[in-house]
Write the structure tokens for this entry.
Amino acid sequence: QVQVSESGGGLFQAGGSLRLSCLASGLKFEATVIGWFRQAPGAERETLLCIYKNGIVAQYSNSVDGRFKIARDNAANTASLQMNGLKPDDTATYYCAARFSTDCSRDFAAYPYWGQGTQVTVSS
């Protein structure tokens, strides 16, 4: 049974940093690409970044340019999203998702395995 879970959310100050973690089990982690997404209240889900199994990163959102970094540890079945320079506009539920493919995708429907999300709230 595939399980994906996120952790690390909470309440943060603008200008601060945090790291979200994504743990995937029940799958061959090194055969997946991992994407990070977010959804703010009343907004559409936004694709942020995706990381290939070899660590190459695809960026899909200009809103996180230079501030967010994605990484993965295949031995630990984990991925992370380092978020720096937080802004109130970063307030959202953040999700990670896995896809058995050699290609990342901007389309969140292409990712069959999702975590439950972790809430990040950034206060000004």
In short: The chain has a mean pLDDT of 96. The radius of gyration is 13 Å. The CA atoms of residues 82 and 99 lie 21 Å apart.
